[in-house]
Amino acid sequence: MKNFVLKGNILYSKNSDKIEEYPDSYLVCEEGISRGVFRSLPEQYKNLPLKDYGEKLIIPGLVDLHIHAPQYAYRGMGMDLELMDWLQQQAFPEEAKYIDLEYAKKAYGIFAQQMKISATTRASIFATRHSEATKLLMELLEDTGLMTYVGKVNMDNDAPENLIEESADISAAHTIEWLDGIEGRFQRTKPILTPRFIPSCTKALLKKLQQIRTDYDLPVQSHLSENPGEIAFVKELFPEAAFYGDCYDRYDLFGQKPGSPLTKGTIMAHCVYSGDEEIALMKQNGVFIAHCPASNMNISSGIAPVRKYMEQGLHMGLGSDVAGGQTESMFRAMTDAIQMSKMYWRLVDDTKKPLTFDEAFYLATKGGGAFFGKVGSFEEGYELDALVLNDEHLPHPQKLTLHQRLERFAYLGGDVQGIVSKYVAGQCILKEQTA
Amino acid sequence: MKNFVLKGNILYSKNSDKIEEYPDSYLVCEEGISRGVFRSLPEQYKNLPLKDYGEKLIIPGLVDLHIHAPQYAYRGMGMDLELMDWLQQQAFPEEAKYIDLEYAKKAYGIFAQQMKISATTRASIFATRHSEATKLLMELLEDTGLMTYVGKVNMDNDAPENLIEESADISAAHTIEWLDGIEGRFQRTKPILTPRFIPSCTKALLKKLQQIRTDYDLPVQSHLSENPGEIAFVKELFPEAAFYGDCYDRYDLFGQKPGSPLTKGTIMAHCVYSGDEEIALMKQNGVFIAHCPASNMNISSGIAPVRKYMEQGLHMGLGSDVAGGQTESMFRAMTDAIQMSKMYWRLVDDTKKPLTFDEAFYLATKGGGAFFGKVGSFEEGYELDALVLNDEHLPHPQKLTLHQRLERFAYLGGDVQGIVSKYVAGQCILKEQTA
Hints:
Two copies of one chain form a homodimer. By secondary structure, the first copy, chain A, is α/β, with parallel strands linked by helices. The first copy, chain A, folds into two domains: 4-60 and 377-430, Urease, subunit C, domain 1 (Roll); 62-372, TIM Barrel. In chain A, 35% of the residues lie in helices and 22% in strands. Chain A is built from 13 helices and 17 strands. Chain A has helices at residues 83-96, 101-117, 131-144, 168-182, 203-216, 228-237, 244-249, 276-285, 293-298, 306-311, 330-347, 357-369, 402-412; strands at residues 4-13, 19-30, 33-38, 50-60, 62-68, 120-126, 147-151, 153-154, 189-191, 194-195, 220-224, 266-270, 288-291, 315-318, 386-389, 419-424, 427-430. In chain A, the strands form four sheets. Chain A has a seven-stranded mixed beta sheet with strand order 3-2-1-4-15-16-17. In chain A, α2 runs parallel beside α3 (131-144), α4 runs parallel beside α5 and α11 packs across α12. The mean pLDDT of chain A is 96. Chains A and B meet through α2, α9, α11 and α13 of A and α2, α9, α11 and α13 of B.
């Protein structure tokens, strides 16, 4: 049933300046596509089934541009480490377990269920290097109704023996086997090429991935300029590259060069330390930045210059980066992004104004949504992803505006308790429980 | 009933280095005082009533050294402002409403109830300048079973007409009226002298408060060195003071000078920009620092040098600082403190190591608890404040240690949902709901 009307207090972004507010209004969906928001219901939609959410808030679904499914198991633990140590002591040992499909089923089952009830409607997800477990993850995600990209990770360098891929050839062969194995199997769950990051990939592997990307016209996701220690290591490994992003670009894994026949984009997570050349190349190639503020705090990376990226008109969305970030809550990612931008303004560069709440909301909806097409807004023609929010568990003595209620929900109530219903591309995947 | 045994997975701090872990152990309470934690129950306690919490975690109650009760109404809203603008546009207009006792009853009723179900067992609380509403707040808090200090705010300078106190004399008179009005009325709710901060107080008022403090032997709470704009303003107002804290110290409102007959301490919130002289005076006078990381982010103040304060052996605890901070959750304050300390290390001074989880837990329990006496630990002789935590709503596929479960709860589940029971000084104020 993809033709309907939702009634309630509706908020969404057209641009990053200002959240649009429609009290007690109508959101029309036909064939999974928004026909817009109306203060009174136009005649031609009056025969559509209408669901009245009363005083509740209705907003676009939130988009998570960067999350690691296998790391969900240890979210919020082992946080007293910096990136490179954290990878060796936390990430790699956990990821090695996913060779065992029984363990993967249990762990990914939890992940998929928690993502289903979260605020996220779209996500770009790292699995592990294991192709069988990655297929399993895709099956589980397909069943949730979420729309996702999922990547089998490529890593043939600098990882423990029980996790590393034995060679570039084997990594590539497993990738092709994975891609061919899922061909045509899923409606909502798509593959994305996922070189872990430059330190994990030999040049031979990058070369193979370049070919695979061309052959399959795949999108790409990876990590970029996250941490000073990591960046120094990349310089050692790749002395010929002009900057970190150039390592990917040399193998056509960095967006789409002008005139490229490739149709799918690239997400680079973090970009905490991207310099002018890297920024210019991201802009030219249409690379999406996944800004992951919680992760950047937890593993002591630093603060990304998000205002600069916005000023320069780069594509940007937010990422939870579980388990560098401790939670899949994209409401939390929104408010973390604001808080971090304030510390950037105060401690790094006071010409870069902090993000406003409206801007952070935009990034978490339409900003990241653009990676998935016309996603993240209720404007006419957008795929209809929506959350219905109940903020009754947050008592208050005074009258609140819709904007205040939304801001408060993001700062306080961004937990699953308040998310009562969820629509993805016009399909209701989470129905309001009647008490 | 203040004599009992609690059984469960018990964690607490003796010092800031390391959390003690007692799986499946016994916490003994006699007359509200801990008799210690035992791996097997000593013979002499076997006749005490025993409550078995099974797999749940039992930890000391958390201590909030700094929170504004009237600002609870707008927690998580209007966050796109810096301190001095935020005060004028958010704090002052809301606080002015508390002249109306009906409004105060509604708003403070919400605050008291939410504090009761929160992780906090002890708190030091700002009310408004209104003595009647402050008495009402104290009544409501007394009923919760929490142990708190509450202060009627003093402010006779630089505030809107509908909030400012007309003169130092009137402010002092209302303070005395408030103190005399509550004399002997409460077991758990104590008064604390509360000059708002230096910009809000004339020197005439500070002089009056000095006398009141001496006459009533009161503790003191205020704000210190929070924000560069505020600090510059204090310098203008008080050119004769050597530093911000000196303004308070000149009126005996800054801890206890050596040899002072005063027996009650002082809490100074924030201390983001305290210099060496101020630090030395805080140390000499035993001033408690309330570190409020969320607030320092939200109103763009900066990052307090907590490692420096720990190295120097200053008294320190954590504060939620609602509504500069958006939530009363002291679990959130713990993890915010860790995250901020990582950004301090990365961006300000890389000789100051980030806080560990164990250190943040110590600050939120025994560190701040010391302001209330022997509070914040389960060591023998401590007043027994305890939380019982259920983390079953946070699924995981692998076996977890107690430390991992606690760290994860703080980072993720620090919401009221997981707090199933709560004891304050041996009294159970929140009983486990049986489903």
